[in-house]
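Reminder: ligand-aware prediction takes two inputs, not one.
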Amino acid sequence: MAKQDMIKGIKGVKDILPEETPRWRVIEEAARGAALRYGFQEIRIPIFEVTTLFARSIGATTDIVEKEMYTFADRDGTSLTLRPEGTAGTVRAFIEHNLAADPLPQKYFYLGPMFRHERPQAGRLRQFHQFGVESFGTSDPRADVEVIALLWRFLSDLSLPDLTLEMNSLGTSADRAAYLPALVSFLKQHESRLCANCRRRIETNPLRILDCKVPECRTVTDKAPRLTDHLSAEAQVHFDEVLAGLAVIGIPYQLNHRLVRGLDYYCLTAFEITSTHLGAQNAVGAGGRYDGLVESLGGPSVPAVGFAVGLERVTLMLPEGTASSIGPSIYVAAFGAEGNRAGVLLLEALRRAGFSAQTDYRSTSLKAHLRQADRAACSFAILLGDDEVKRGSGILRNMHSKAQEELSLGDFPTLLKSRVLG
Ligand code: HAM
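Here is what comes back for the chain with histidyl-adenosine monophosphate:
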């Protein structure tokens, strides 16, 4: 086949090759461990849902819904979408299975792929992975502090460098309704200095203009009225308590009045963790409170707060050499008809005893076997030739020290457990 006919993967959709998966396992295990320690249970939601779920929750005028969703017609014409995030699906499942009838609060976490048609670059993909948590049932600011603490500890326990927690309050929906006319009027006065996208957003989503990265837009919005100056007493108290709670448990933060989030369901607390190690796509994880979402999707009035972390971004920041290991691996080097027969049995016995054991069926010489054992970074090899098998034994070789000793074949799994692992 000509090279140009070779089928390639899709732009922005990456393979995670075996050399990278040990790092991914470290991250996923840390995520599961942290979530379980904070009392979150795993939920597994579908990868695709009806399109209206995302349009109604994330917001029809957001970038995600306007231009980033993978939407397609099902065979009966129903519009379906690959999930761009996990909150909407979790809320849908929470309502559909009547989980609010069970004692609250209920706290869920998920890990899995998400899909957004964005321009791919370092740390920004079209299929990416999130670890997310959603805590339903309490409007207590301590619940906000709890999810932020979980996110912060998860990232700092992985020794990710230069993390900054940024905090803002988006107020209640009434606070925003009262503030937006002041913002829009200010923006209209300076419309000519804004980029085309921001000019369009004055009508559709003015809050997002505060978040624009274009320098001239930032200069203009530096002087814009601030939402934090328009908070109701209720929102102000909530924000103060979240900040005080973070201080009590020693989590440092910075206030960022531009932090408005790209999804419409948020209210009150909004937060983001960034790192200077990430370049343009500097948000590692982000989230906030979304007290109105369950109700607006047809459920009872249940307050909620959560976050999601982009795992590709975590892999980019994970210190070199971080890898999970499943313990020493053992190589079985078998020769000759008897040796090969015994080798198959020994491999099976070792694996059933819980060892990682391997061989190369193509190798017929000791040299070739030992080369493969080295390549596979095995700590031990068991040499099994016809002579050893006749004696009912095999030779255990320490691949580092090269020391060898003959052991009884039937006893290998038990002996190895005490001598190698014990
Ligand atoms: P988000 O800010 O859209 O929030 O995404 C959360 C994180 O996912 C980002 O901070 C980033 O690390 C990662 N991420 C987003 N898009 C991409 C991409 N194209 N490529 C790589 N990584 C990406 C949410 O998704 C909300 N559902 C979070 C939440 C949960 N809020 C409450 N509960």
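Residues 85-87, 116, 118, 123-125, 128, 130, 132, 134, 262-263, 283-288, 290, 306-310, 312-313 surround histidyl-adenosine monophosphate (CB under 6 Å). The mean pLDDT is 94. We will return to this case in the review session.
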